[in-house]
Structure formats: C-alpha cells, structure tokens
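job 3f2a | input accepted
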Amino acid sequence: MLGVTTQAYYASLVRPESNRSKENRKLTDRIEVLFYENRRCYGVKRIHDALNDHGIRCGKKRVSRLMKERNLEAKGKKKFKVTTDSEHKHPVAPNILARNFAPERPNQVWAGDITYIWTSEGWVYLAVFLDLFSRKVVGWATSKRLTTSFVLLAFERACARRKPSEELLVHTDRGSQYASHLFRKMLAENNSVLSMSRRGNCWDNAVVESFFARLKVELVHGERFTSRDHIEHELFDHIERFYNQRRKHSFLENTSPLMYESKYYQVAQAA
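job 3f2a | predicted structure (271 res):
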C-alpha cells in the first residue's frame, strides 16, 4: 500500500542508524529531561532557552518538531474567573499604582491577591505578595477560611523576609481583607501606602493575576490534593524552590526572580 518493496522493507530493519538520527534521539532525550525537570511548564521557547543555558545550540523549529514527536506539550491555561467580593463598607484606597508594573528597584512596590485551591478536605485559600520589580513571591500564607488574619500573616512574612527600609507601595484589589482596619494598621506600622484596583478591573492587578493563572496551570490543574497539608507542601515546593529560584520569566529577560534580583544588586554594588 505504501509502494515499498519487501526487499527494501527488510533492508531498512538492519540499516544502521544515521548520525543525524542519533543526534536527534540524544537531543530529544535531553529535551524530555528538561521538560519534566521544569514540571511540564515549559513550551518550545523556554525549552530552547534552557538548552542554550546548558551550551546546547539548535534551532527552535527543531526543538518544536522533536517535542511534538515525543508528545511533550506544556500545560495549558483555563479561562479567568472573577472571585473578588468588594461589597463591603470599609474605605477604598485610590489606584496609586495605575498599572505601573515596572518599578526601578526591589521593595518599592508589592502587589497582593488571594486565590483558592480545592483539596479532599475542602477549599484552601492562598494569599501572596509579589515584588513587582522581580515578580518574586516575597510572602505567602494559606488558610481554610477567607479571613483577614492569613492576609496579615502573608504580609508579615514578606516584611520579615525583605525588611523594606523605604516607603513601600502595596497594591491589592478591593477585597474586604485588604480594606480592613487591621490590614491598614499593619501597613502604617511598616511605612507602607495602600493602592487598590478599580472595581471589577482585574487588569489593574494583572501581575498577580498572571502569577495565579500560571500557578493553576503548572501546579493545580489535573492534580488531586488529598489534604490541606498536602497542598501546603506542594505550594512551598513550587513557590520557593521552583518559581522564585528557577522558573524563567519572559519579563525578567528569561531569568528567574532570584537571578534577576542578584544581577540588580551586583550592578548596584559595582556602581
């Protein structure tokens, strides 16, 4: 049916593997290692960059073809869903940030938000604060209830880790946890000014929304978490060991948040 003679077919079975085939097989094996080392999160572009980091030079089209042959496809996104309830009587702060997501130095602007993850024991809520300079998660906490206390804990951890010395701008949505008296009091005690997104406008806090979207794709979707302790362990591993230290970020010149900050401080010290 394929127009191949019997003689040609049997000859192909004993024909030695070409050098090009050997190179492709070795390269594909290396691509697969990098793909799973980075938790099936990297597509063609980031795999290509990772190969370059290891001194392996090849074209993106070749990487794309080899990944397709091995069925190595990065996890996909799901549609965004608005979850913030801003119907409360607490005062609302103005949008000081105004979508200026590129501060000049670390500890100048932090952005915070909350998301939720399902486990066999029920919902787990995750509060994070990101430094917008490096997109690094500087503080986070979890809770089984959507309260102000775990947001305060996340911010307290961020301050303990970073120890900001100058006035800090903290941007959030209009959720009651951030508009509460307790959160505003903690901000004042830490020389921080509150900025809030406009009502129902997720783009005003797009960096944290993007982080949560990638977190759901890279860690949550398709996985089953048996307990709250289970997801707490997985979040620590993903945020502290993978995202902050290793995950390449397109905004950060394809480096990790940790590496991006390290380069900044090296240049600052040299100056």
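job 3f2a | The chain has a mean pLDDT of 88.
job 3f2a | closed
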